[in-house]
Amino acid sequence: MNSGINPLRDPVDRRLPRIAGPCGLVLFGVTGDLAQKKLLPALYDLTNQGLLPATFGLTGFARRDWGVAEFADSVEKAVRAGARTPFRQAAWRQFSDGFRFVSGTFDDGDAYVRLAATLADLDAQRGTSGNHAFYLSVPPSAFPVVCGHLAAQKLATPPSPDAWRRVIIEKPFGHDLASAKQLDAVVSQVFSPDSVFRIDHYLGKETVQNLMALRFANELFEPVWNSHHIDHVQITMAEDAGIAGRAGYYDGIGAARDVVQNHLLQLLALTAMEEPVTFSAADLRAEKEKVLSAISLPPDLGASTARGQYSAGWHGGVAVPGFRQETGIAPDSCTETYAALRLDIDTRRWAGTPFYVRTGKRLGRRVTEIAIVFRGVPHRPFGAAAVPFSANALVIRVQPDEGVTLRIGAKVPGEGMEIRQVSMDFGYGSAFTQNSPEAYERLILDVLLGDPPLFPQAREVELSWSILDPAEQYWAGHGAPELYAPGSWGPPGADELMARDGRTWRRP
Question: Which position among 263, 315, 379, 478 bears the catalytic label?
Answer without folding.
Answer: 263
